[in-house]
Amino acid sequence: MMTYLPLIAALAGLGWVQADPDRELTAWAVLRGVDPAIVHAVARIETGNVPPDRRDSVVSRTGDVGRMQINTGFWCPKLGLDRPNCVEWLQNRRNNYALGTAILAKTRTKYGGRGLTDCRCGGQHSGGWIAHYNGGHTVKKGSRAERYGMKVIQYSKENRGCGG
Questions:
Q1: What is the C-alpha separation between 20 and 66, in angstroms, rounded?
Q2: For the chain, which terminal residue's Cβ has fewer other Cβ atoms within 10 angstroms, N or C?
């Protein structure tokens, strides 16, 4: 991972990353050690139906913010921010991408196995570790979080050109 840092820094300095949201999201994924195909699959699921010019600032009816749809009820207190300031902070795409990819990296570390479909949670679901990004600690068979994880797995394969 460290070998990528100079490249990311150089690209960011040249404006290559900052000029395009998809490139910036890829850079954050690489920086956090998360497969960019997974990160882009999550972003597609979270805000794929939102017009591209609004994806970074969208706030869902449940209070999730930005392209990575970060849950303000859970994360704002951890960030030490009140909700209005937290929403504004998360609507900055750099902050949203940085936190979203950090959450994904933490989720993978806590629940991940050898691959995307593996999960060390002890549950009997098919959503892999990624289901916990959506469902938190407990993911049950047949749950919305399991379906979410299965969809991320499918989209990430498509992003790599491996099916679908």
A1: 15
A2: N
